[in-house]
Amino acid sequence: MKSVKNLKNIKGKKVLVRVDFNVPIKNGKIIDDFRIKKSIPTIEFLQKKGAEVILISHLGKDGTESLAPVAERLKKYVKKDIILLENIRQYPEEEKNDLSFAKKVAGIADIYVNDAFSVSHRKHASVVGVPKYLPSYAGLQLEEEIKNLSKVIKNPKHPFLFILGGAKFSTKMPLIKKYLKTADYIFIGGALLNDFLKAKKYEIGKSLTDNTKIPANILNNKKIILPVDVAILSGNKIINKKISDVKKNEIIIDVGKESIKLAENYIKKSKLILWNGPLGKYEEKSGDLATKKLLKFVACSKAESIIGGGDIVSVVSRMKIEKKLSFVSTGGGATLDFLANGTLPGIKVLK
């Protein structure tokens, strides 16, 4: 993979940089600009070398949203002139990876740089098509993602704790299978926990499940650490209960207080912590308690900590503790795919 650091004599050259500015926007205002800030080092690096930087990104799913609020926010971080193209998903050819479209896009620049790790799992024109027509390089943030996430794949430190939360069990199954081989412990939270409890014949009430069948060799594996209690939403009240005491009309929204202490004990003795996905229904009131408490605990621990997955990253961003953690990934699905496969389509094309 060629690095942007290897670029020479690019003064006056047009460099097309694929960034991911798919940030949360409410009433025209950006709620969290974590991904925007992560792109700044690559932009500044290219501008210092005299390149004309053209940024390309998507926003939302259907291409109807405008990147105008992002352009406004960029002024806060980028002092030199820069071009930000409008939402690339307004063109259906983007998601179809139409090569004639990719060629047209490539035609506006001399060099291509991918600095959007978080979309590099998608076979879209601006990710895998454009590099077919231009000299292509990895941006600084993309390199950082690969370097740090590779630490849990190649020769990880031990004891190695994997904290795994989030909702869709089917998307997390490849991770569980892979890291049962290399991690010392996997602490389960989020809606994934509901699937484990249901498979073990516990009552989970009206809690969210994926209904994915869990193989016995995973369900009964001694490396899998399940919480011993949960936080329940019963009417408007949140109650702490043992996993055996949940009733049919109740909803599990978080792991419980004793389970937080249990997780803390594993964090204390770990040298490497990989965390993907929140432990509770973090958007609900008090459903983010365990996630916040344990993130603070991880931030204060001596372990190397690698945090990934869109939802957990938004919690980290709100808590403003990113600098206390070893590395926070910008990716959601891309982080999952990279951890499972060790590469992504958008990385493979950067030859």
Main features:
18% strand, elongated, 2 domains, alpha/beta, five-stranded parallel β-sheet, 14 helices, Rossmann fold, 36% helix, 16 strands, 351 residues
Please explain how this structure is put together.
The chain starts with 13 loop residues before the first strand and ends with a helix. α10 runs parallel beside α11 (289-300). It has helices at 34-48, 68-77, 92-96, 99-106, 125-129, 140-149, 169-182, 190-199, 216-219, 257-268, 289-300, 310-319, 333-341, 345-348; strands at 14-18, 25-26, 29-30, 52-56, 83-84, 111-114, 136-138, 160-164, 185-188, 224-225, 229-234, 237-242, 251-255, 272-276, 304-308, 327-328. 36% of the residues lie in helices and 18% in strands. With 351 residues, it is an alpha/beta fold. The strands form four sheets. Strands 10-9-8-14-15-16 form a six-stranded parallel sheet, sandwiched between helices.
Query: What proportion strand?
Result: 15-25%
The chain-level mean pLDDT equals: 95
Look up the CATH topology of the largest domain: Rossmann fold
Number of strand segments: 16
The total count of helices amounts to 14
What kind of assembly state do the chains in view correspond to? single chain
What best-fitting shape do the alpha-carbon axes yield? Answer: elongated
Computed Rg: 22 Å
Number of domains: 2
Low-pLDDT runs: none
Largest sheet, if any?
6 strands, parallel
Instruction: Find the structural class using helix and strand composition.
Output: alpha/beta
Please identify which CATH superfamily of the largest domain we are dealing with. Phosphoglycerate kinase, N-terminal domain
Question: Roughly how much helix do the residues carry, as a percent range?
Answer: 25-40%
Gross CATH architecture of the largest domain: 3-Layer(aba) Sandwich
Distance between the termini: 5 Å
> In sequence order, what are the helices and strands, one letter per element?
EEEHEHEHHEHEHEHEHHEEEEHEHEHEHH
CATH class of the largest domain: Alpha Beta
The strand line-up of the biggest sheet is 10-9-8-14-15-16
